[in-house]
Design brief:
The chain is built from four helices and eight strands; from the N terminus they run βααβββββββαα. The chain is α+β, with helices and mostly antiparallel strands. The chain has a five-stranded antiparallel sheet with strand order 1-2-8-4-5, with no helix packed on it. Strands 3-7-6 form a three-stranded antiparallel sheet, with no helix packed on it.
């Protein structure tokens, strides 16, 4: 199973003005740098939390339908499934009608249940595509406050460590880990 981002978030959980206030930066000389660091901080927190903060589109690739017809979705939190396609040997996409599957959001990971007969892919690798929308919401206000604060802390660490010396990523997560931990999916 492979997941690929197809539609990045339209906004960040922090505006440039909020980030500059947090960093105590006046003037606009570093606006481009700070904007890039906001995106990097968000992406880092998403990776650490194993969840999308702002609404974004993902494509999941499967080689075959799982046994039992239940496909766990590796992106969280899932909002909706937009499309499911199976590929024929010719390379033609065969849409799977929504009546043939059901999205279960009751747990994490979210799961896609096949509820009817669906064709098997005729392509050996990545013959099934599931397009979905994931994230806490389209607005920064939809993101849980601890995760937004984790983005702020990561932003400050990235801003302070701009190539002036060794950059120790494990040290970055030390103060941030308690903010992110409650949102990480449990592993059994």
């Amino acid at each position: 199973m492979t997941a690929r981002l197809i539609t990045p978030p339209a906004i960040e959980p922090l505006t440039l003005a909020e980030a500059k206030l947090w960093l105590r930066v006046d003037g606009g000389e570093e606006d481009a740098l700070i904007a890039g660091l906001i995106a990097t901080a968000r992406a880092t927190i998403e990776r650490e939390a194993r969840r999308c903060l702002i609404t974004q589109g993902w494509r999941i690739f499967l080689d075959a339908w799982p046994e039992g017809g239940v496909a766990p979705l590796p992106v969280a939190p899932v909002q909706a499934v937009a499309a499911v396609r199976v590929y024929a040997a010719s390379g033609a996409a065969i849409p799977v009608p929504p009546a043939q599957y059901r999205l279960d959001l009751s747990g994490e990971p979210a799961r896609l249940y096949l509820t009817g007969v669906v064709p098997a892919p005729e392509i050996v690798s990545g013959g099934i595509e599931i397009d979905l929308t994931a994230g806490h919401g389209a607005a920064a206000a939809d993101v849980p406050a601890p995760l937004v604060h984790a983005v702020r802390l990561m932003l400050a660490r990235l801003y302070e460590a701009r190539g002036d010396g060794p950059f120790d990523l494990p040290a970055l997560t030390g103060a941030i880990a308690p903010l992110v931990a409650p949102f990480r999916p449990a592993r059994l």
